[in-house]
Specification:
This protein has about 120 residues and is an alpha+beta fold. Helix content is about 45%, strand content about 20%. It is globular and about 40 Å long.
């Protein structure tokens, strides 16, 4: 009985270590789907007043920093930022697990504002 108990405890410890060290796999398809959802949400409100729009970083460069910026209407802020944060975390994991590289020389600067053109937000740099 004592041997069985020790064996079961050892098995549990090893199983827990494997579960902790096992990477969560993020597929490219999942990234594309979340990105499409972000874009759909961003485009769901027509841009008629630029002062109602904000920007946030979106995505990750493999060497660090944002891949781009995106505009969103302030009425969508909580839902939009939750979705973008999810995308950023998934993409970071995807980059790390697949050992991706990027051009670290190109710094993506944040926009200074937003303007409206044909009901669409346009980032101003």
């Amino acid at each position: 009985m004592k041997r069985i108990t020790i064996f079961l405890i050892s098995l549990l410890v090893v199983s827990c270590e494997l579960a902790i060290n096992e990477p969560l796999l993020v597929s490219e398809e999942e990234l594309i789907n979340v990105q499409a959802e972000i874009i759909r949400l961003a485009e769901s409100v027509p841009c008629t007043n630029a002062s109602e729009w904000k920007t946030t970083r979106m995505g990750n460069k493999a060497c660090g920093g944002p891949a781009s910026y995106i505009a969103y209407h302030q009425s969508l802020e909580r839902e939009f930022l939750d979705l973008v944060n999810r995308f950023n975390a998934l993409e970071k994991e995807y980059i790390e697990k697949n050992n991706l590289i990027s051009d670290c020389k190109m710094l993506v600067v944040p926009p200074v504002g937003v303007r409206c053109e044909k009901d669409k937000p346009v980032l101003i740099y």
